[in-house]
Amino acid sequence: MACYKIHRILFCARGQLESPEAHCFAFTCSHGDSIDTAIFQCHVFRCEIPDAVGKILMAFANAFRRIPHLPVNSSHSIEDPVFRFEVTLEVKEDDNKGGYSSCPKDKNCFKLRKNLEKKLILTAQQTAGFRELVIERCFGLLICPGRNVRQSDMHLLDMVSLGSSAEGRQYVISGIWDPRDSTFEVLNTETPKDTRVYMTIAVDLVIVGIQEPVRFVIETKAKIFQQNERFWYFPKRTLNEHFYVKLKEIENETSTEPRFEVASIESGTDVERRKSMLPLSLHHLHPPASSPSTGSMSTLGEIDDESDADEPLMSGSGDVSKDCSEGELEDWAETLAKWRLNLKQRPNKLASLVRRGIPEALRGEVWQLLASCTATEEQEMFESYRILITNDSPWEQVITRDIHRTFPAHDFFKEAGGLGQDSLFKLSKAYSVYDEEIGYCQGLSFLAAALLLHVPEEQAFCILVKIMFEYGHRNLFRQNFEELHLKFYQLERLMEVR
């Protein structure tokens, strides 16, 4: 019914012995290209054969013990060597207790508090190349407000340290940054609502065998809050970027060891944009020693978009705000507590809370409650779903064609053959078999995909059926979309009246 890549599995466990869960096992699986974009899901299974659980856990243990060697990038020859590095950025703030606490990061934007000393932590690890490169020392850690900045605008941080993991393959660089300095005023001023500022962080690394320091440049957004701001929701904390370093071998008369110079450095973000034939920023394709940046600093405060008005946006590339005040969170907690006591009656505050937006962490539960998915109905729909996905559907070819068009920029769905696309295919197929009159329409896949981002497949199927039948959404797809065209007409007339 489903397959999972072993290197994506983070943790596994079995049910407690001498309990009803003794025949069960579960594991947590990550989906996404990086720590920053990963989505984590927990999968629980029950075995018909009791002894099978122990054998499965033993198979997990054997697989986890296999430590992979450094991957080799076979797409480039030694005469044209390209090395890939993974660099992560974490920002921490003074917690007024003698230490530092991690700053939350919402999608590609760090949430920072003003007037607090910061610690920047970067990790660098080589992930591909025909030979292992050793980082000897950190030549400098720099920061600057804005993006597309000149080399002369970068400011060197003090108290920079370099460490490495036990295996010596991952290097950790950290430095102290005080944003209260007048140079960083824009990064220490509260940003207006729906506005972000940019900052650029660069690290210069001295690598054995390379003539000059290698500079990795990361540009990121930040939103500045008051010093006493509290964040109720802590999303992912690190920014992840890949860099492709192309080296050129040079003559070395003093040693038999090969020597290289940097031909170019390209980030994964730039590679993706170039593949899409979009405008490409070239400001950091060359190392600082040979080709200083000549671009000018961009506007520091910008509206919360990607500032690429001439670039088309694929569905799934948008950013959803997770900000929620403490008062709103308390209102939701009170409302849900009352609602759970009487599922047949919706609390009075519910309508106003929903209009202001359901917090992301609560959407799965709230959507199920709004759809009136009772425990009995859910169990019946779960069993139906497991049967439906095994049946043939006349719409399978059309569904397969549309899968890659649904939120193609979202990390959960962009991987061909990945769990996201596989779950979307099964959910769309199951509904096409369940509702023979409607079958499948392209618009259904976007509704199904939105549900899958918050609930497992079986629960998504139950909610989808409720939305289609009890909320009347399936009527939009009937009789050549007559009701859909009627809704469009009504909307246009209402807009004319306004």
Summarize this, please?
The chain is of the alpha+beta class and 498 residues long. 26% of the residues lie in helices and 27% in strands.
Rg measurement, Å: 26 Å
N-to-C SSE series?
EEEHEEEEEEEEEEEEEHEHHHHHHHHH
How much β-strand is present in the residues?
25-35%
The number of helical runs is: 11
Question: Count the strands?
Answer: 17
Written overview of the protein:
There is one protein chain. The protein is of the alpha+beta class and 498 residues long. It contains eleven helices and 17 strands. It has helices at residues 52-64, 268-275, 326-341, 350-356, 363-370, 375-388, 396-403, 419-434, 442-452, 457-469, 482-497; strands at 9-14, 24-31, 39-46, 82-94, 100-102, 105-106, 109-113, 118-128, 135-145, 155-156, 158-164, 170-177, 195-207, 214-225, 238-250, 259-267, 301-303. Strands 4, 5, 8, 11, 12, 15 and 16 form a seven-stranded antiparallel sheet that branches. Strands 6, 7, 9, 10, 13, 14 and 17 form a seven-stranded mixed sheet that branches. A hairpin with a 5-residue loop joins strand 11 and strand 12. The radius of gyration is 26 Å and the shape is globular. The chain starts with 8 loop residues before the first strand and ends with a helix. The model is unreliable at 66-79, 277-300 and 304-313 (pLDDT under 50).
